[in-house]
Design goal:
The chain is mainly beta and 122 residues long. It is built from no helices and eleven strands. Strands 2, 4, 5, 6, 9, 10 and 11 form a seven-stranded mixed sheet that branches. Strands 1-3-8-7 form a four-stranded antiparallel sheet, with no helix packed on it.
């Protein structure tokens, strides 16, 4: 089971940028498909961006973040670069992983981190 740890969340003004990190210390994270999710207050958790294992590195983004967010991976860390942040990007951001060979945007993951808070507000 992965032990994923997110970091990088903060409070920023609209239009600002943040870079989130998802780190796993014990397993070769490049073998896993990784997804970033977020949960806004009073809303259900939603998948935001995902990347398949390092062997092909296919990425997917939901429409509301396309062109603003970029998911990438480097060794045992997966990043989520978030630019042009908007109020509606506020929420707790989680990373999750799976070894199952399926499209990352099926949003089915077994191992989850504890989350990092992102607040976008003027």
């Amino acid at each position: 089971q992965l032990r994923l740890v997110e970091s990088g969340g903060a409070s920023v003004q609209p239009g600002g940028s943040l870079k989130l990190s998802c780190v796993e210390s014990d397993f070769a994270l490049d073998l896993y498909t990784i997804g970033w999710f977020r949960q806004a207050p009073g809303k259900e958790r939603e998948g935001v961006a995902c990347i398949s294992s390092a062997s092909d590195g296919v990425t997917y983004y939901i429409d509301s973040v396309k062109g603003r967010f970029t998911i990438s991976r480097n060794g045992n860390t997966v990043f989520l670069q978030m630019n042009s942040l908007q109020d509606e990007d506020t929420g707790v951001y989680y990373c999750a992983g799976t070894r199952v060979n399926r499209a990352c945007n099926m949003w089915k993951y077994e191992d989850w981190g504890q989350g990092t808070q992102v607040t976008v507000s003027s």
